[in-house]
Amino acid sequence: MHVRLEELAKTIDSHLPPRSRAGDVVRLCREACGFHFAAVCVAPSAVGAACERLRGCDVKVSAVADGGPEIARACVVAGAAELEVPLDTDAMLAGDFGGARARLAAVVRAVRTASITTGRGHVLVKAAMDGDRLDIARKQLACRIVETVGADFAVLRTAAPARSSALWDVELLRERLPERIGLKVAGPVAAAEEALEVAAAGAGRVGTPYGAAVVGGLPVLRRAS
Asked: Given this model, what pLDDT does residue 219 score?
């Protein structure tokens, strides 16, 4: 598969590395702007700073937000163009699918309302499921929930995105989701080959803290625990 660097870069959602430090948001934004990634994914408290750093750049700010509708609304007001929110894994495991759906739906409504009142236009909502804890049946139910609440993306978070079983999950979820809903895979993707495998399986976005290594051939430096 021959993919141009620019095409690969525009699949990348650049996440902060584990145990991130002061100044990492600045580095993340500078790197993302240089490579023209799709988005940077930051905590709600860093949305304003990231928006300021990326002013005039073609990289979106995506808030990775738990905490319900109020936090989601605040992220939109602060300037986030995208929101990544978790689907309630514990509720899904307990069989409380209605509760998981209701909580996600409340966040989607808050984002839609805030995007209108602030005049920000359409703010993407990406609903994230825990791919390492949910079984196939629950992942399929999660796709149905994402569809019915009006979210824009389903996100499969997994510790091994390029493992064969994870790639099979990606293919299954892509088949299960309607075409209008995007699919993102998030995990420690650290090489272009891994990102291309995930994309070939059906993901339109790849979330990773190693975006520069993926598109720039830079060495991957994982922080010591």
From this structure: 52
